[in-house]
Amino acid sequence: xxxxxxxxxxxxxxxxxxxxxxxxxxxxxxxxxxxxxxxxxxxxxxxxxxxxxxxxxxxxxxxxxxxxxxxxxxxxxxxxxxxxxxxxxxxxxxxxxxxxxxxxxxxxxxxxxxxxxxxxxxxxxxxxxxxxxxxxxxxxxxxxxxxxxxxxxxxxxxxxxxxxxxxxxxxxxxxxxxxxxxxxxxxxxxxxxxxxxxxxxxxxx
Length: 205
Known about the structure:
By secondary structure, the chain is of the alpha/beta class. The chain has one domain (3-183): 3-Layer(aba) Sandwich (Uracil-DNA Glycosylase, subunit E), CATH 3.40.470.10. It contains ten helices and seven strands. The chain has helices at 3-12, 18-23, 47-52, 59-70, 96-113, 123-129, 135-138, 156-161, 166-173, 176-182; strands spanning 31-32, 38-42, 79-82, 117-121, 142-145, 148-153, 194-196. β5 and β6 (148-153) form a beta hairpin. The chain is globular, with a radius of gyration of 16 Å. The relative contact order is 0.15. Mean pLDDT is 90; it is low at 186-195 and 197-205.
């Protein structure tokens, strides 16, 4: 069993959040390629995810699959997970204490997968890697730190609730391949922050 598989097994028995542990149907550790170049990080499992134990399998997940296909990849080529691994009751927002408790799992997943790009989906994952920023201002922008590109996007569910965002999300997704292509090989990069069009594309508030 790989280290990532072992980690997922550990996540399945997590009891760090009493409320989430008592109310969940299934834990949703994550899914995808163990050597994925791109890691998508959402917010928390919803009803469909809680039933199946897999991330992004409801309507938002179907849209995410479309987005991944639009850049020539398949779902199994990337890794998909969430900030919080269990569904909050009634699909409420995850609490700061829950995000903090789950952070160790996410950090370990990143450490094991070593993605070249982390794509934040929605404001909760964005807040981890773009602290103090507004998603309406920085969606579709990226920065590089320690050989990893961090790229902010709206959550796919936002485009389902607000149709005007659908084209915005689709356009942001198409920026991912060029960003990966322009990134130097890991061995050639210095561990410093390099800004990549950080403040472009801010007109979609």
